[in-house]
Write a structure and sequence with these properties.
Layout lengths: L14 H20 L4 H4 L10 H20 L19 H5 L5 H23 L26 H27 L8
Helix pairs in contact: 1-3, 1-6, 3-5, 3-6
Length: 185
């Protein structure tokens, strides 16, 4: 389908291009499910869940930053996550999203995704962390105090995270206006 999120996935790409393509497709699908909604709609829940589309945008922004900025590069989370009161509220991104405007939610999501894209591009070039490059480059930090995972592992995990939450986004969007996804059936 021309102009669809499938255009982001090369049909004959190498491993890195395919992983990045599927990650980009999932990012685009989440964005499409949230676009055109006002603050009240982005904050609407589908009981008994307390999950919201705005919360999903903010959650996936911190997930991107956590895996790529923090774990992979050993850097800080992107703002506002770098100064969020995580000690007081471990689900701060979910709870605070209702206080954000749609513009703020998309801005933090886009900023985090932009930072992630730059990190991945560096890692796939000769300028990867600690002289490493490619999908086999290892994260600076360990995961669950075990091992330093590869960039490949992180990209697959991000695809998995988006895929799970895009299903939630479909249900939430459908409850708002009947729309289920970006219209690519």
């Amino acid at each position: 389908m021309a102009g669809s999120s499938w255009d982001l996935v090369p049909p004959d790409g190498d491993e890195a291009a395919t992983l990045i393509g599927f990650l980009e497709r999932n990012r685009a699908n989440l964005r499409a499910r949230c676009e055109g909604l006002d603050a009240a709609q982005l904050a609407r829940t589908l009981p008994p869940s307390t999950m919201t589309l705005g919360g999903l945008l903010k959650h996936l922004a911190v997930v991107e930053s956590g895996w790529l900025s923090e774990h992979f590069e050993d850097g800080p989370l992107v703002p506002p996550f770098d100064t969020a009161p995580w000690e007081e509220d471990t689900d701060w991104e979910w709870h605070s999203a209702a206080d954000d405007t749609p513009e703020e939610l998309f801005e933090v999501f886009d900023r985090s995704v932009g930072q992630s894209r730059r990190i991945v591009a560096r890692a796939l070039s000769a300028d990867g962390p600690a002289g490493q490059s490619g999908l086999d480059a290892r994260a600076a930090r360990t995961v669950h105090d075990q091992e330093r995972v590869t960039l490949r592992w992180i990209l697959v995990h991000l695809i998995e995270e988006y895929a799970q939450h895009n299903g939630h986004a479909d249900l939430l969007r459908e409850s708002i206006d009947g729309r289920t996804g970006p219209g690519e059936r």
